[in-house]
Amino acid sequence: MLTNPGSSLRLPSKERITWVLAVWGACLVYAIVRYNVFKGVEWTHLPLYIVNKSAAFGGVVFIALAYVVGKLFGGTPGSELVRAKAKFFGLTGFGMISMHILMSMVLLSPANYEKFFAASGKLNLTGEVTFLCGVLAYGCLLFPAITTLPHMYDAFGMERWLRAQHLGYATLALACGHTFAMGYKGWFDLSTWPGSMPPITMLGFLAALSALVVKSVRVIARR
């Protein structure tokens, strides 16, 4: 998120709404077309099962955007516009991932996510690794989210505050692990892609990985 929470930076409401509708809307349309239209998932599962997928995908995209906003949209990394966008993207991503977690808890069962469960009804290795990475990712994400609260910058001091903000990169790395463990078996067999559309887990993995690559290139360039 990388913006001083002590500031009153805020994007215009019209721009905030536009971003949410554009990103989440695109993720939702993609999920509907892939799963309801081409895969044949019943439309009765749109309100929660499909929306959950779009929230997870959109959340990762927003968090990735928060950490590459300067590179994508230009401007000085410390400029007010870049910091305002980074804060908005980060907090929006946090909100969407929070919704994803709540919806996943409601949906979690062998009937909805058979690949996560053994015949005994307990989680298998895929399920264990997937949820471990997800829980750890959310735990890391809490730190940059909490430090955007008013007065946290003054309470933490610049050095500790920056360390908390940079835990967002750990979130992105763990998101890569979460999506990889969840779906990698279906990434390389194109015949299993409904409508030849790549899995959402694959797209989420690439979104998170792209932000990490941008960060790595930036670090190398500074040396």
Can you give keywords for this protein?
single chain, 223 residues, 7 helices, mainly alpha
**Share of residues in helices:** over 70%
The largest sheet is: none
Percent strand: under 5%
Looking at how many chains there are and whether they match, the oligomeric state comes to single chain
Question: Structural class, judged by helices and strands?
Answer: mainly alpha
Number of strands: 0
How many angstroms separate the termini? 23 Å
Characterize the overall form.
globular
SSE order, as H and E? Answer: HHHHHHH
Average predicted confidence as pLDDT? 91
The rounded Rg comes to 18 Å
Low-confidence stretches: none
What does this structure look like?
This protein is an all-alpha fold and 223 residues long. Helices cover 71% and strands 0% of the residues. Helix 2 (46-73) packs across helix 6 (158-183) and helix 2 runs parallel beside helix 7. The longest helix is centred in the first third of the chain and has 28 residues, at 46-73. The chain is globular.
Produce a short descriptive summary.
This protein has helices at 13-38, 46-73, 80-107, 125-146, 152-156, 158-183, 200-222. With 223 residues, the chain is an all-alpha fold.
List the helices and strands and how they pair.
Elements (H helix, E strand, L loop, with lengths): L12 H26 L7 H28 L6 H28 L17 H22 L5 H5 L1 H26 L16 H23 L1
Helix pairs in contact: 1-2, 2-3, 2-6, 2-7, 3-4, 4-6, 6-7
